[in-house]
C-alpha cells in the first residue's frame, strides 16, 4: 500500500479519483484542447512516496496515457500555473508518460 507523506489520510484510489476529476475539469474548460489522450494509469512518485519529502515538497504524479498527444504538450497543459491541482495545500506536479 502506498503512503503519501502529508496525505496519509488518503487512499490511492481517492488520489486517483481526484486526479481524474481534475483532468475532467481541464477538458471541460478547454485547457486540454487539441490533446488527444486517454489516461491509463495514475502513479504517485517522488519524495512524498519515498518518505524523503519536507514541508515544502510538491507531490509528483506520473500520468500514463495513450493517444496522439505529445508528452511535452501534456506536461505544459497539466502543470499550467493557472489551473494547478492542489491537495491539502500541496502542489501537484504531473509527469505524463506515453505508454
Tell me the Rg in angstroms: 13 Å
* Helix-strand string: HEHEHEE
Number of strands: 4
Report the major sheet: 4 strands, mixed
Count of folded domains: 1
Question: pLDDT under 50 segments (min length 5)?
Answer: none
Q: What level of helicity do the residues show? A: 25-40%
By helix and strand content, what is the structural category?
A: alpha+beta
**Helix count, DSSP H or I runs of 4 or more residues:** 3
Strand order across the biggest sheet?
1-2-4-3
In terms of DSSP E residues, the strand content is 25-35%
Distance between the termini: 23 Å
Mean pLDDT: 96
Q: Overall 3D geometry?
A: globular
Protein model, in words:
By secondary structure, the chain is α+β, with helices and mostly antiparallel strands. It has one domain (12-98). The protein contains 3 helices and 4 strands; from the N terminus they run αβαβαββ. The mean pLDDT is 96.
